[in-house]
Amino acid sequence: MSEREMASDDVLGSLGVQGASAGAHALSLPADAYGNDFLKLTKMDDDIYKMFRETFKDLDIKKLNPDDLKSDEMKEVWRPFCNQFQGLIEDFNYGTLLRLDCERDYTEENTIFATRAQFFAVEVARNKEGCNDVVFTSKSSKSES
After folding, report:
1. Phi, psi at residue 112, to the nearest 5°?
2. Beta strand pairing status for 111-115 and 95-99?
3. For the chain, what is the domain count?
4. Domain span at residue 94?
5. Using an 8 Å Cβ cutoff, are 33 and 39 in contact?
6. How far is CA 104 from CA 26, 35, 45, 107, 132, in A?
7. What sequence ranges are listed for the domain Polysaccharide biosynthesis (predicted)?
8. How far apart are CA 1 and CA 3, in angstroms?
9. Cβ distance 42 to 48 under 8 Å?
């Protein structure tokens, strides 16, 4: 197996050292440390969110249907959306895992293979729209018990 294949098999590897370190640090903080800003995934979160909601006004990000990402019709919309991040998001078209239902953890049944651009677009939107709050609230209440 080549280095590149091994890296694509590793979800954290797909985030890169800097992204994985930032994510690990962010997840180690208590949920109340985030306030309403929650978690910043990239330096471009605001731009990604604006472009995402301009393109996908009615997409239900709380519970994605695989067809929202993979149907032939949606691929025609996602392709130009993702391509606008070439040179702006490192490895924008590399594969990573994305949760379908944001209220559930990463499991085989609750993940889909998506591009990094799709991952950032959906997760930034989930953060900004408060959809990920339930995960961090449940994690912080477990740690307080």
Report:
1. -140, 150
2. antiparallel
3. 1
4. 3-144
5. no
6. 19, 21, 23, 8, 10
7. 37-135
8. 7
9. yes
Residue 51: give its domain's CATH number: 1.10.3560.10
Q: What is the pLDDT along the chain (145 residues), one digit of tens a residue?
A: 444 444 444 444 555 555 555 565 555 555 555 444 577 889 999 999 999 999 999 999 999 999 999 999 999 999 999 999 999 999 999 999 999 999 998 999 999 999 999 999 999 999 999 998 876 666 555 556 5
Contacts of 120 by beta carbon, 8 Å cutoff, 6+ apart:
41, 42, 48, 89
Q: Tokens 């994510």, residue?
A: 23
Q: Are 126 and 61 in contact (CB under 8 A)?
A: yes
Q: Quote the tokens at residue 135.
A: 């995960």
